[in-house]
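Students often ask what a holo structure prediction actually looks like on paper. The answer is less mysterious than it sounds. You provide the chain, you provide the ligand, and the output is a string of discrete structure tokens encoding the 3D arrangement of the protein together with zinc ion.
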Amino acid sequence: MNIVAMNQESPAPGVVFAQLFRGLVVRWPHLPMSPASRAPAAEPLPALQQEIARLAALPQVRSAMEWFRDQEAQFTRWQLEVARIAAPPFGEQARSDWLAEQFAALGLGCIEQDSLGNVFGSQAAVGASCVSISAHLDTVFPAGTSMDARQQGRKLHGPSVSDNSAGVTAVLALAAAVVRFGLLQGNSTPTSLLFIGNVGEEGEGDLRGMRNIFTDSQWKDKITASVVIDGAGTDTIVAEALGSRRFEVTLRGPGGHSWSDFGAPNPIVALARAIHLFSQTRVSSSPKTTFNIGVIHGGTSVNSIPQSASMRVDIRSTSAFEIERLELELRSAVEHATEEEEIRSANDTSLRSAELEAEILAIGNRPAGELPPNACILQIARAVDAYLGNTAKVQRASTDANIPISLGREAIAIGAGGAGGGAHTLHEWFDPAGRELGLRRILLIVLALAGTVK
Ligand SMILES: [Zn+2]
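The corresponding structure tokens follow.
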């Protein structure tokens, strides 16, 4: 986070609050509260909350916040359109192209797509720094799923209509407001807003879109704060990144006939030993750590000694150290189990080679991490919630924000407003009632983070 460094000479009002986090003494301008403000009247207002109120009272910001209320027809059109485009993991290109077209139609001056299909839009070329507002484009639904998003009464129904067509719609709504109301005009700092539709958040996508942005893109060092929009609602702030690591363990042996090759090392027996050993691993409740063996495969027929057996293992923790420890436990369990089966086999028969081969393939890696409680982005989000009279809990989840948070960068994941349910099912729904609260919340957070409005 580098807000102050951008403008230490003569801070614009929008960046003044950032200095409070660094203990600098700031002469606070007394500004009237917006008549529309629902901030508690209790005095004195915390300085940051007062700064948010000042931001919200700026004419162009007020206009944008009111405009959100009248645009539901457009928001619904965007949301249904994007939800009807198939976007299975590794098959997001059609949505990427659609989003780039919408960015162009809104008048964003700089639109780019990287080789993975991440789409970037900004009003002008990003200078030294930017705040990103992103939503993932991919869905959990495999190719061939009927993406039949539809409106029934007020509600929208269909796969991905909330997760994450609501998020994509919010990104478009924010971009539209920024362009329409000139929210970044006259900014005295080089910070801009970067709108992103990214690939690869769900399942086997393994956060590949966000990972690429933060490790191998022109923006990786320029993004000072990230606001990830995922799903519906306004009642959470994800500031703790739940980490996970997933493995496919495959054991292979010579196989054989159940009668004539009896005694040869059996990969299914070795896998069962490995499961038995690993499942006895102790895990801590704080930091919470879990594991699961979710899938097993193997064997040919009841009268064959199998040539292979495999399992899929999911390890989760809020602590990167605990994830590392469980991975070592898993590797050790597989090694011991294989050795035991080889020894048993060698003792039983001299007819067959006693070799088993073990392969442990990483099939997922979502890094863990958490923001410090005094993180600037968290304080801003809380101040915005206090100003808007919104109640939200800080939560732990696995989202695109895992990547920046694990790198020690400021990031949160929040909802797009409205309400939603049935995520990752064909019965997913979204109710836009109250969507404008979510959009106002996002707008105030990103403007405060950018510190560019005055
Ligand atoms: Zn999602």
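The chain has 13 helices and 19 strands.
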